[in-house]
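Predict the holo structure. Ligand: manganese (II) ion.
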Amino acid sequence: MNFEQIDALKKLLSSPKRIAIVPHKNPDGDAIGSTLALSHYLSKKGHKTNVLSPNDFPKFLKWMPGANGILNFERHNSEVKKYIEEADLIFTLDFNDFGRVGQMAESLENAKAQFIMVDHHQQPSDYAQITYSDVSMSSTCEMVYTLIDSLGDCDLIDQNIANCIYTGIMTDTGSFKFKATTSRDTPGCGRSYG
Ligand SMILES: [Mn+2]
């Protein structure tokens, strides 16, 4: 994230908000890992969060901390619509175009909330007020980690958040085998912020 984005995000998160967090349709380990990690983090910051998925996600991801609380648009339609309508902020993770959320697109298009996109795929659409897009990242989970680091909140990363982030990085890198795998040092974690 650049300084301007970090600043804008800090401002948006400076008071308690109702936050919807949305993965793409047919979510994979990175989509579920990143949305849950962000949700755990933002709740620790005092926000009211809901992870709202366009549809159900695979059984092998149901163990993840917070997975029980995910609402899906196909099964909990009116509830999901209500949370989208009422949201102050909507984070969209691991996708960058409303074409990736199926039937849920209409609700997102009509939402009054400010959008924050966090994604590592090419050619992002321009629906978000903050577009954190980086194709060099291995995974959206790596980006959520960077986001938390950029906001100076590494000390809030607990076991649940770490498990979620690790799952997404592992699944999106084919267990650390793909090209985008790096051993990037983390600029902020463990150091003090001014
Ligand atoms: Mn991904």
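The first helix runs from residue 3 to 12. The pocket of manganese (II) ion is lined by residues 30, 94, 120, 139-140, 172 (CB under 6 Å).
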